[in-house]
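Re-run with default settings, no changes from the original entry. Doing this only to confirm the output is reproducible before filing.
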Amino acid sequence: MAAVSEAVTAQRAVKEARTVARYAAAAGAPLRERRRIHDDVVTDHLGVAETIARRYSRDGQDWGDLRQVAYLGLIKAARRFDPERGADFVAFAVPTISGEIKRHLRDHAWFIRPPRRVQELRGTIATTMPRLTQELGRTPSLAELAKSLDDELCNVREAVCSQESLRPASLDSTGSGDDLPLAETIGRIDDQFERAEMMTEIGSACRRLAPRDRRILYLRFFQERTQQEIAAELGVTQMQVSRLLTRILGRLRSDLAYP
C-alpha cells in the first residue's frame, strides 16, 4: 500500500514538473504557441476535471453535461494560471473547476429559477429534514421545520414548494380530474420570439460599432480572451482594453436604451 502511495506521489510530482516546464516555455511564446501549450496542460489533467465532476453527479444530474462543464473550467484554469504566484496548477484548477460546475448547477438545474435565498434555504432544509425526522420519529411539519431553522413559516413553505421548479410537470400530463393535456390549458408562449427580437436588436447595435470595437467584443465575449491577451493582440495596455470595453458596452447600452 505504501509503495502504491509513493508511486502516485511520484507520478503527481512528475506531472507538476512537466506543467511548470510548459508554462515556462509559454512565457515568451506567441499567442498561438501559448494556446497549444495550454491545450497540452488541459489534456494532461482531464482526470482531475472528471473526478470533480463525478462528485457533483447526483440528484439526477447528467454526468455527460457535468463532465463537459468541468472540462470548460479546466480550460479556463489553464489559461488563467500564473506559476509565478507560487501555487501548483492542480491547487489552482480544483476551485476553478468546482466554481464552474456550481455556476452551471445554479443557472441550469432549475427549469424556473427561484431567488437565490430560496435555493439556499431549500438546501438547508434538505440537510435538516433527516435530522428532524430521526428526532421526532416522523416527518416534521412545515411549522416544526421553520422553528428548527429559526425562519418564517412562509419562507420555509416557499422553499419546499420550489422543488417543483427542479422537475416541473410534463406539458403532456393531465391535471387532476381533467382529460386535457396541460399544454392545452395554458396560453401561447412567446419567449422565443422575444429572444429573437432581442438578438436582432443586439446584432444591429453591434454592426453600428467600429470594426476594432466589434473585434474587441468578439475576443472578450465569444473567445473568452482575458484583457491582457486582447491587449497583446491589439498592441495596447491592459488598462486601455479595460477602458475600451467600458466605452463599448456603454455605447451598446445607450443604443439599446437599457437603463
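The longest helix spans residues 2-26. The chain has twelve helices and no strands.
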